[in-house]
Protein 1
Amino acid sequence: MIRIIGIDPGLAQTGYGIIEAAGSTIRCLEFGTIETKPHVPTGERLRTLYDALCLVLKRFNPAESGIESLYFAKNSATAFPVAQAKGVVLLAMEQNGITVREYPPQALKQAIVGNGKAEKSQVQALVKLILGLAEIPEPDHASDALAAAICHYHHRAVM
């Protein structure tokens, strides 16, 4: 069994999802978001993200991570804050000895749905199905993080 953490980085909300997998069996251990408040200075928000993520890493001790890479076709104004959050995520992974691989949104969609142009709702429905969850993981950042973890699990065999 291998534990993998998936991450959907963001300054306001960073989604995370922890899976445990072996062979064709993949199960969800936990998912959620780490949220920061917009009125707080950026440095403090990044520290909040780092501290909360390190707690998740210590609790679950994942060996590897799949992270959704940055994509800003629709809103380039969010590029800098998301990039800052991603940097904090990468630092936390490195300091905890976790192997990281990044995947663009199209690769996540391809790995989950079989179509790199799938709708977000399709990805969410299949994440629910693959993991045998009773409900679609909410919020969507958590669902995206679980998709990143599943994608990494499928791709690690060819690494």
Protein 2
Amino acid sequence: MKAVLIIFAFSTLLTSANADIIYALGTSNTNCKNAAQAYTKKLGEILPQHEFINGGVDGDKPKWMLNRLKQTLENIPNIKLVIFEPGPNEPNKEENLAGAETVLLFLKSINMKTIYVSNGVIQNKENAAALAEKYGATYYGPWTMNVPVDREHRQYDMQGPGHMTVKGCELWAQFMAPVISQALENK
């Protein structure tokens, strides 16, 4: 909890009152576990007119994300877009999706521009796209979309490819950047 408060205080000091801030809410995928938040760092390099805050937490589940999201929005009121990646940490798919829907419903209720990033372990692309549409979010696709499944891009730290390497996270950022620009332009 202290770490979260320190991050909020530090983020508040760094952010300008006029900056468009993008908050990436998610799991270890979002914070690029063992890859030093390379995803949001690279997004900041590609889109320097925006500030990015990485709200990825290892092992997080959608049912826990809503409170963190609300705290972040209270402490950093000039967030213009949320990238939401609920991850696969909740093994019960129905519970994972219910938690994700709660977050998406909240974001819709406050008219927050949202990009929804799915995980193939939890739902297929068609169902994920329908969920995003239901809540007025832009659908990105699965977090690993178009990232090669090789040791240069994936850590192989789990059963299978696992988390992305720095290079994989940076590639994800390159694919995400135009989606962010488009989502911010849409009213």
Protein 3
Amino acid sequence: MTDTITPVSTRAVNGLTLPSTGTFVLDKSHTEVGFIARHLMVSKVRGRFTDFEGTIVVADDPSESSVEVIIQAASINTNDENRDKHVRTNDFLSTDEFPALTFRSTKVELSSGGDWKVNGDLTVRGVTRPIVLDVQFEGVIQDPWGNQRLGFTASGEIDRNDFGVSFNAALETGGFVVSPKVKLEIEAEAVRQA
């Protein structure tokens, strides 16, 4: 008896290979939701969130596709427990009062070279601001267990002051302890739902 392999469900749109329409959910064990902030103006601190969920709806018209992600703010991990505890306080994320960060797309558009721009609303500490993520679609594949998976990389930048996350201390030599600009970096894998 031989196993039957279901072919990967894709389609061609404007010369690009894209997944067929459907709903995909983020696979937490193969997804990284990270960020980078400058520290003391001379180095970078990388962090990530470990508790999140997300849904991607691939529409027939790719520009009508959508993304929604909910991140548990207290799951922040910068590899320094004391720093993480501080970031959870009212100085930064105020996780007791605002337990979740959310992103909801408002527009998806093809940009140069087959990459995508995903416009959306990011909510941090109860403050919602528009952001744009640069997204590279990495492909769609059938895994060994018969699941269809897609991968993508996304990046963007925010000014944390726009969200009321403005704690800082000035340095005698100029600049601040923590940069106002924070880079967002997402490496994601999502699984098609039945």
